[in-house]
């Protein structure tokens, strides 16, 4: 039997980080991951909209905590403070454009401005990183759009999927 997908959820929000607004996105994403694919949520964290903080935490989660999947929520819009995609690109070695494309396509019918979202998905080592929008509803809807593919991606990274070649262990 395959182990559950170990997930970390990283909320990117200046106001939630400062305690000015409750983080509703992170808990909503965590609950959706449990419901959709039986995830084991091992960490929920709130960070400010700072590229270095986001990149440092993505690296820490992938390299040291050894989670299978990091889901971010927030920082994917057009504001000057929205830097989650840039931070993600700075730490992943392989991008997976199909996941963000699927999320935008699924969201676009209900919300035409969804095509402006700048989500990124990629791989660092054996960890999949997926950016979700900042609104709790949008984040959950986007996760629902790609949830069926995530356990398979994790199995491939673990070397457990048929015809998968495991990613070499970290040094």
Indicate the radius of gyration in whole angstroms.
15 Å
CATH architecture: 3-Layer(aba) Sandwich
Number of DSSP E strands? 6
Q: Largest sheet at a glance?
A: 6 strands, mixed
Separate helix tally: 7
How are the strands ordered across the major sheet? Answer: 2-1-3-6-5-4
- Tell me the distance between the termini: 27 Å
Q: Order of helices and strands, N to C? A: EHHEHEHEHEEHH
Chain-wise SSE layout:
Layout: E1 6-12, H1 14-17, H2 25-37, E2 40-47, H3 51-65, E3 69-73, H4 84-91, E4 94-95, H5 98-108, E5 121-124, E6 127-132, H6 136-146, H7 150-158
Parallel strand pairs: 1-2, 1-3, 3-6
Antiparallel strand pairs: 4-5, 5-6
Helix pairs in contact: 2-6, 3-4, 5-6
Structure commentary:
This protein is an alpha/beta fold and 171 residues long. It has a single domain, classed as MoaB/Mog-like domain (Molybdenum Cofactor Biosythetic Enzyme, Chain A, 3-Layer(aba) Sandwich), CATH 3.40.980. The protein has seven helices and six strands. The chain has helices spanning 14-17, 25-37, 51-65, 84-91, 98-108, 136-146, 150-158, and strands at residues 6-12, 40-47, 69-73, 94-95, 121-124, 127-132. The protein has a six-stranded mixed sheet, sandwiched between helices. Helix 2 runs parallel beside helix 6, helix 3 (51-65) packs across helix 4 (84-91) and helix 5 crosses helix 6. The longest helix has 15 residues, at 51-65. It is globular. It starts with 5 loop residues before the first strand and ends in a 13-residue tail after the last helix. The mean pLDDT is 92.
């Amino acid at each position: 039997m395959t182990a559950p997908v170990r997930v970390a959820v990283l909320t990117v929000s200046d106001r939630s980080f400062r305690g000015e607004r409750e983080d509703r996105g992170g808990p909503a994403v965590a609950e959706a991951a449990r419901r959709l694919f039986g995830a084991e949520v091992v960490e929920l964290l709130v960070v400010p909209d700072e590229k270095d903080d986001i990149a440092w935490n993505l690296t820490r989660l992938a390299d040291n905590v050894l989670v299978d999947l990091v889901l971010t929520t927030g920082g994917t819009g057009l504001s000057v403070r929205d830097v989650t995609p840039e931070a993600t690109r700075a730490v992943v070695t392989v991008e997976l454009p199909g996941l963000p494309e699927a999320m935008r396509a699924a969201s676009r019918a209900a919300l035409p401005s969804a095509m402006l979202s700048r989500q990124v998905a990629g791989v660092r080592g054996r960890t999949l990183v997926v950016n979700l929008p900042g609104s709790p509803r949008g984040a959950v809807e986007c996760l629902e759009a790609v949830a069926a593919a995530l356990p398979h991606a994790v199995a491939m990274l673990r070397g457990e999927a048929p015809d998968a070649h495991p990613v070499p262990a970290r040094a």
